[in-house]
Amino acid sequence: FKFKFKRTFLKDNFTGFRQNDLKSQARKHRIQGVLLTLIIVSAVLIAAGYFLWPKLEDNIRTSIQKEIDKEMVVVSVTKRAIDIREHIGDNVIQKKIKKEDIPKDALVTALSSDYIFKRTLSENEIITNGDVIKLTDLIPDSRRYQEYNGVIDVPSGIEEYRNSENSEPLVVDVRYQNLSEERNEVILSKKELPLLIGSTIWFEIEDERERKLMDSAMKEKQLDGGTLILTIYTDPVIQEKAEVTYIPLDERDMIIEDTEGGGDS
User: Fold this and answer.
1) Distance between CA 245 and CA 118 in Å, rounded?
2) Residue 74 bridge partners (DSSP)
3) Residue 48 banded pLDDT, cuts 50, 70, 90
4) I want to staple 106 with a disulfide (CB 3.0 to 4.6 A). Which of 53, 75, 93, 115 is the partner?
5) Whole-angstrom distance, CA of residue 155 vs CA of residue 159
6) Rounded Cα distance, 198 and 70, in Å
7) Taking the alpha carbons of 186, 187, 188, 193 in that order, is the dihedral positive or negative?
8) CB neighbourhood size of 256 (10 A)
9) Could you tell me if 191 and 202 are in contact, meaning their C-beta atoms sit under 8 angstroms apart?
10) Rg of the Cα atoms in the chain
């Protein structure tokens, strides 16, 4: 009985130990499998992160930049301090500025070199449309408004026409007319009337040449008669500027002297 009991006990005990050992090994293998899986997953994630992070970082940076750009505007800025009448040239750079920091009329387009500055600007100052002017639109230094009071015959009804609603600014030629000498010559061509009150007229005199023409015509009117008259352009937008045909008295005298001198020879 004792022997049988011992054999049974040993057999059961061995079987129990074996089962426990198998369970332990299975648990060990599961743990190893889990650890191996974690190691593989971690390696994959690290590798993916290594290769994908720069691209992801670029995408994030691009998205952030796009959001920033929505609040930015590219404007023209001075590269250095600018003096009046300097050409744009390479003195201007394009720069992104926050919308809230730029004036409403900021210059947002690059301009060619045929523009100049109308005022002095400091370095890195935002340029506005009013700060520059095209050379062809530059007002000459000699341009002045000149008043002529009672020396030009004003057509009847011109004031009413000029002040009527929806009428365009009047553009006229000033002519010297002397019917007895069959003369009708253009003194000033295609001039807008900025001011007309009764017989008082204001013109924009472009230069000393135009001033000389008017002075000579007024002198000739006093000496030889004749009148100064206005002729009105019917469509100044498309009509060409009339050719100036009036010759000042002193130049006319020189022409006559040259002609007579040539005849004597």
Assistant:
1) 35
2) 96
3) low
4) 75
5) 9
6) 57
7) negative
8) 10
9) no
10) 47
Backbone angles phi, psi at 108, to 5 degrees: -105, -5
Whole-angstrom Cα distance, residue 76 to residue 94? 5
Place of tokens 């600014």: 169
Q: What gap in Å lies between CA 37 and CA 198, rounded to an integer?
A: 103
76, 110 in Cβ contact below 8 A? yes
| Lookup result for tokens 């959001």 | 67
The 10s digit of each residue's pLDDT in 63-101 is 766 666 667 788 888 888 988 888 887 888 888 888 777
Which tokens in the block code for residue 44?
Answer: 């994959």
d(CA 105, CA 126): 10
Whether the pTM exceeds 0.85: the reply is: no
Please tell me the distance from the alpha carbon of residue 153 to that of residue 36, in angstroms, as a whole number.
Answer: 109
